[in-house]
Amino acid sequence: xxxxxxxxxxxLSLVVVRLQxxxxxxxxxxxxxxxxxxxxxxxxxxxxxxxxxxxxEFALRSYSYLWLHGLPAKVLQLVTDNGVLIxxxxxxxxxxxxxxxxxxxxxxLGRKCGGGVxxxxxxxxxxxxxxxxxxxxxLPSSFSMYITLATMAAWLxxxxxxxxxxxxxSGLIVALCLGVSRMLxxxxxxxxxxxxxxxxxxxxxxxxxxxxxEWHRFPGNFFLPPNYRVRFVESSFTGMLPAYYDETQNGxxxxxxxxxxxxxxxxxxxxxxSRCDYLVDxxxxxxxxxxSAEPNYSVDRKTWSIASSVEFVQAEDIMSNYRPRGAIxxxxxxxxxxxxxxxxxxxxxxxxxxxxxxxxxxxxxxLNGPDELTLEWLERSKKTSGRFWLQxxxxxxxxxxxxxxxxxxxxxxxxxxxxxxxxxxxxxxxLTAGGFFQHRERQSALxxxxxGAGDGEVTLRxxxxxxxxxxxxxxxxxxxxxWTMRNRLNEKNFIVLENLNQIHQADLIVxxxxxxxxxxxxxxxxxxxxxxxxxxxALIALVLPYSHYVEKNSSHLPLRTLLEPWPPEKxxxxxxxxxxxxxxxxxxxxxIRTWTKAPYLCEGDLRxxxxxxTDYVVLCSK
Length: 622
Known about the structure:
Elements: H1 2-24, H2 30-45, E1 49-50, H3 64-77, H4 83-113, H5 115-127, H6 129-134, H7 140-158, H8 169-189, H9 192-195, E2 207-211, E3 228-232, E4 243-244, E5 278-280, H10 315-320, H11 327-343, H12 372-385, H13 388-401, H14 407-413, E6 419-420, H15 424-433, E7 445-451, H16 457-470, E8 473-479, H17 483-491, E9 495-497, E10 506-512, H18 521-531, E11 532-543, H19 574-588, E12 591-603, E13 610-621
Parallel strand pairs: 2-3, 2-5, 7-8, 7-10, 8-9, 10-11
Antiparallel strand pairs: 1-4, 6-12, 11-13, 12-13
């Protein structure tokens, strides 16, 4: 029985690590995209890029290898047409195949060479950066690796002669550190080309997504939503770019005059920049130079607006500025750099307004901060985020949990992600300024409900303020969509509701930074209004500049945006966005009592001590 358990652990370890490779390893070479994934996309969906190697005139590559993977993908296509899902299922099939072949070799190594040798081999396999990258790659070299694994296992099974490699203990440690470091680096710092396309909105008309200097990082049409086409615009690269297959039944047999074997570029592959609907570019921090062959387009705000941006390590700058190369070393370096920047911040600007909105400026209440309790929270966050091994365990755990849990669920499970907005003293000052405590002298009890309460720490600060002010008996309700956070709220004696409709005549409803994260913010505001007592108040916070993201919606878009129309025809100032927000509240029926500016602080991680956004907190009543 113990042997069966041991084998099950080995199989599970190999399968889990290889599936992590399938889900989180990047496409390391554009050859994999354009010579394998794109032709496969064409075979499945009738659309994809063709390289000169596949042109019938040269015919350097065969479609046989592609159909080996295309057949299961074709079967899957009968169930779903989701390109991203098909991409990852094919990758997972490759990963599981590799894991099973590795397990067979492990068993034979254990029988022929002993359990110690087999265990060391397994350890190297699980922590090898090369295996992490290659095990799920759609490349003939990876297929050859599978064959080699099968051949070696068969050979060892027939022949008892074995070559035993002896490695110094220090070499083992170095190999383990380098392997894990490389795996973390590729997953954490270089995923931008594969993730940025997920923010493209659904569309009914054909739109063009253009690539210039970043053409070699395009992950493939599997990552594009329907009705999008990738186009290439002129850059400093003068070689031959891929072109779309002729989308007919015999598209693979048509000879095109724009392919050649001299790597000479052809105008057919290029698209006019002015006709692009979206442009994927790498912001290197340079100024915009319209005469450059590869200008920094994101700085040209007259022509382009940033729809989405994802962090990506700029390797050239790392080397030129003597930054470390290892993933763990980079984390330390970034942490020191980010914390140094944080030290220079004037934290009083978190609470001050440079200019007040015209319509609602008289209702602004200035908070003095950061106060002592805020600074204590920041210091605790620095200490917690500075525990390297704890934070490293969190990062590794997130790699596994991301497969089936949202980021909020993961934070709840790992007991991290603590938030801070106002201290007890600041809550007291703000509620007093807005008239919350007036005419409540005779009340002995209060009912408070926090929507999207998270871990409940912000709510507990507010409740403590109320209890200290009037010695009220406070009944605390909360709603939360994350099941792990609900468990944490139950541990803190919150009454957790399924939805806001379960509470009526609440004295105070709190909605901190949920309106830009929910499916329909207008319905939520109406529900808040209806759930309040006639003398009830609502405490609402919104991060500005406004941006929406719905975590549990596949498109991450709300049914209706809070601020409408959005995006606006022209870029708005924060003061203009504030006025739009307050107008929305008044349209529901709320009366604005007072408002203020405060930091929305979040517990830090390996990269920096803490994070912050700019919050605008509003106290309103019926």
